[in-house]
């Protein structure tokens, strides 16, 4: 078994690139935009350092089953072009980072929380258990969340702003569906022109002095299988005919089911998970691949 390869993209990011089931994509080396809104005035372009020739080397070894769906079928393209709603995962899809890991690191609980995040991603523990364990290790106050967003505004993935602009210009509704926290996603939605009512995510709760008071366990995204439920709910509430889910994780793939998403597109530009990519209808490494297949109206 080959050793994991570590690459540093910034003073606080060490990326572990494993040649096994999940690899950090080389495309994280592209320009990343830090989300900013008037509350978090830290707008800047951030040039992540060259990630890793090593990661590119690893990507060459991906199984042919993953690469078989790099070219979409005619039916997949027709569904993509006719979608009246598109739901995006946030962590490692719309954004380069895992929001809860960022918050944990900022609050000094990075290592312990990252271990739970890995368990949550691999499905070895129920999502709700991993979420509760992680947040109880952080117990962030409102001011800590705000300070974290100010000091470390979420990094928006390359090309996502143009994709969302193109979808909106084509009258396609855009949603963010995340197992992360709404308070950390709102600045991203603001930056991308997505209304807050189109965010389906977990909610941190605070006391009257801003102290941590738990999280809302009634949100479907706080439980295993929650994204699938949330996407079904969106479709039912809005009466969409054709709905597409885009993400990098197994919970995003689950959203493709009767009454939910018609199509699952795996975005492997940040994290490449072979098991997810292999079952996707279409796997892309750059959002430009999706933009190229849409009508180009005035955006
Ligand atoms: Mg994700």
From TrEMBL:
Keyword Metal-binding: yes
Enzyme class, broadest EC rank: hydrolase
Bias (Polar residues) ranges: 1-13
Swiss-Prot/TrEMBL catalytic activity: O-phospho-L-serine + H2O = L-serine + phosphate
Pathway: Amino-acid biosynthesis; L-serine biosynthesis; L-serine from 3-phospho-D-glycerate: step 3/3
Keyword Amino-acid biosynthesis tagged: yes
A GO cellular component annotation in the UniProt record: chloroplast
EC number: 3.1.3.3
Catalytic residues as annotated in Swiss-Prot or TrEMBL: 89 (nucleophile), 91 (proton donor)
Residues covered by region (Disordered): 1-22
Record InterPro entries: HAD-like_SerB (IPR050582), HAD-like_sf (IPR036412), HAD_sf (IPR023214), PSP (IPR004469)
Name listed for the protein in its UniProt record: phosphoserine phosphatase
């Amino acid at each position: 078994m080959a050793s994991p390869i570590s690459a540093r993209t910034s003073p606080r990011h060490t990326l572990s690139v494993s040649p096994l089931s999940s690899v950090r994509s080389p495309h994280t080396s592209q320009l990343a935009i830090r989300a900013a809104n008037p509350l978090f005035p830290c707008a800047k372009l951030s040039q992540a350092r060259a990630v890793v020739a090593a990661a590119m080397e690893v990507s060459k070894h991906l199984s042919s089953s993953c690469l078989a769906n790099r070219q979409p079928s005619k039916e997949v393209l027709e569904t993509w072009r006719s979608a009246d709603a598109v739901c995006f995962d946030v962590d490692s899809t719309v954004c380069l980072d895992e929001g809860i890991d960022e918050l944990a690191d900022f609050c000094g609980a990075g290592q312990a929380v990252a271990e739970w995040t890995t368990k949550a991603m691999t499905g070895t523990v129920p999502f709700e258990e991993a979420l509760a364990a992680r947040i109880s290790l952080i117990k962030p106050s409102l001011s800590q969340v705000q300070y974290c967003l100010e000091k470390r505004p979420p990094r928006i993935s390359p090309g996502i702003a143009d994709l969302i602009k193109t979808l909106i210009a084509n009258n396609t509704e855009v949603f963010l569906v995340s197992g992360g926290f709404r308070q950390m996603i709102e600045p991203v939605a603001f930056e991308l022109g997505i209304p807050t009512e189109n965010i389906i995510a977990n909610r941190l709760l605070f006391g009257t002095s801003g102290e941590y008071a738990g999280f809302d366990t009634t949100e479907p995204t706080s439980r295993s299988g929650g994204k699938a439920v949330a996407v079904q709910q969106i479709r039912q509430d809005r009466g969409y005919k054709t709905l597409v889910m885009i993400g990098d994780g197994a919970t995003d793939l689950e959203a493709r089911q009767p009454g939910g998403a018609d199509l699952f597109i795996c975005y492997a530009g940040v994290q490449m998970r072979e098991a997810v990519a292999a079952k996707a209808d279409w796997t892309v490494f750059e959002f430009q691949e999706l933009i190229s297949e849409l009508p180009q109206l005035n955006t």
